[in-house]
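Below sits my pick:
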Amino acid sequence: MSTRRSISIAGVFVAVAVALSVLVPTEQQQQEPYVQQVSTLGERVDARTFSVTVVDVRLADRVQTPEWTGTTTGVWLVVDIEFERTIDRGPISGSFRIGDTTFELSRRPGTASIDGGAASLPGLPIAGSMLVELPLSALEAPGADRAVIRFTTAFEPRLDGVVDYTFDLGALDHEGSVTVFEPERMPS
């Protein structure tokens, strides 16, 4: 009986070792950001250091502020959001991806873009727009039906949370002109 018991105990140890090798994340997995998905417009999603609500997403031929007009040979992606830092003061940033191609947020609108330096404090949310300049070919690029805008507050988002909003780029409303305003604090 002690031989059977030894074999059973050895079998348990092997099973535990196999389970741990499958369940324990790799070094790479441990350093990847924790990604949360926005499922619908208007839904607030909380990450570790911030929360974000995607209010509207649309395309425009021209973007303007009270002081600037941005024309393009392509199209503008305009993403209206509300965001709030939950731990400390700071801005929000983002990127836009279609398939394997990443597009940076436009810096042309300056401070009219919410990622142009607008900072939030815990309990003091900010509303504004993020803008991406896209070539017209992006609207029908492979993967455009699963385009992703990613929000983060960290320069290096590893070990931090990020929020992704996935949508069909070709299904968005396309307007001739969109006016965006400086980011503003929302009433508490």
